[in-house]
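Data availability (excerpt). All sequences and predicted token strings are deposited with the supplementary files. A representative entry, 5-formyltetrahydrofolate cyclo-ligase, is shown inline so that the format can be inspected without opening the archive.
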Amino acid sequence: MEDRWLVRQSLRKQMLEARSAMAASEAGELSRRIGHRLEELEPLRRAKNIMGFASVKNEVDLRPILEQQRGQGKRIFLPRVESAAEMVAVEFRGWEQTAGGPFGIREPLGPAVPAAEIDAILVPGLVFDARGYRLGYGKGYYDRFLAGMEKRVFLCGVCYEFQLIDNSFPDSLDVPVHWIVTEKSELAINWEFF
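Structure token line:
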């Protein structure tokens, strides 16, 4: 048990360092490529209500794809941390209607919406593995949020290619994604949404 925790902490540290070492121009270019792949992804094309995320620390920048999808009349949601244990979805109405959250991440202002309204979720992570499990920052917000979904929702992991590994040593609380998109590839874990 402790060995797994140490391995996961080591993976987090390694990926944070690798992402931090990227030049802003490289992160921007790779994010653009990922955005193009996401545009073509059938479950996202069909989705009317998409939850994304505001990037931090050289995460994949989803702003262009989220703004493009919003321009097509789709509803876009971003996460907001409500407490030490809870994350909610809030409709995104423009970057001017966001504020810095407890972790320095832009969060939308406004009321939380029922998670049942969401059709697809773009999920961030420090690491994703071949079975769709992710490793985040270790607070468990996404795992609790995803585990609490009342309906089946398309879950798409979004990361850079170097963040894909064979095994993230998941625990019983981790929730796998159905698909992973990087700048170079797509990894299908579950075809049920195609």
